[in-house]
Amino acid sequence: MGGQDKVFATLLGRPLVSYSIAAFDTAAEIDEIALVVAPTRLKEAQHLIAQYRPATPCACVPGGKRRRDSVLAGLNALPGCEWVLVHDGARPLVTPSLIGAALARARETGAAVPGIALADTVKRISADGHVAETLDRATLRAIQTPQAFRRELLLRAHEAETEQDALDDGQMVERLGIPVVIFPGDRRNLKVTTAEDLIMVESLLQRGYG
Q: Is the pTM of this model over 0.85?
């Protein structure tokens, strides 16, 4: 994104993250929202909340150096919640139905993450760039957010984490030996990483999705 903070990129005249906030605000299961942003963006985030006025109480929280530091800041801002969902604000097309499905599946074991089947063949490569192994894509899933957890369980996973920054919160819970349920994600729940992704997301919004 050329150094741009993508969650504040303009998407059809609105900050990208405002779409995620709207989805969580609409979801019947959500009682509170914590918007975690870079410390330098805190005032901008507060202005965004004042502008769009979600009906759900929404706190603006400064994040940390690592992804997991930011998640922990969000957890600390939601002390009264038994269940929490961690969502990447760079996925503006999340829907209330996906949010509800995440929470429903998490109630089975305490942790659930959405995943989608892979369409492409996946190969593991060696350090010198040669094919080391062709993986069975039937057993693989590309993981999305929102990821849902019992709050106490996710806090325990954060407290126990001693490795380098985990790829996602599901991995941290896995390291505790707790089963993590994977449920069907949504292929339209795209993560904006490049300027081209913004064009794709705008197209979906213009067609009525989100």
A: yes
